[in-house]
Amino acid sequence: xxxxxRVRYTKMIIRQCFFRLLRQKSISKITVKEICELAQINRSTxxxxxxxxxxxxxxxxxxxxxxxxxxxxxxxxxxxxxxxITILRAICSNSDFHDLAFLQTQEDFTRRLALACFHKIQxxxxxxSSNGGMLFGCLCGAxxxxxxxxxxxxxxxxxxEIADRIILLTEAVQESFTKENIHTM
Length: 185
Known about the structure:
By secondary structure, this protein is mainly α. The chain has helices at 5-24, 32-39, 43-49, 53-74, 80-93, 95-101, 106-121, 127-130, 132-152, 159-183. It starts with a helix and ends with a helix.
């Protein structure tokens, strides 16, 4: 079902005003009334799409994560590095990611983003599954931290540099788990 242009515009204005308010104060201090006044919309219009500011934030995060995971699905045969670079470039070019990364839920967002991506990327590296959840958990935590640092430091490194760091990190963690398995046998 196609979304009407007016609906897209209204949601865009709500989003922009929400992010503007988030730059000024925490989400717990933002009211629907403030968002509506800034967006110059009625409260009923806001409630047509969102229950409250937390619901708006959750939907924005879900939308961002879904966009990235769909991107992974579009490039299944390219290999890990090209997929990572595509994801990281999308993060660079999408201001919503920058805004989401600086919210109070920043760690949760980057963790959920890393987790969603790793679930999809498992198809490129069977070693993720072979060591159970421990390897997967370690990698998600490490990559989540790396993404958070990258976003907070102003995206100073290129997507290619970050992709290479993620791959090196992945290889180091996998090697560590492989050695551990050898020593416990």
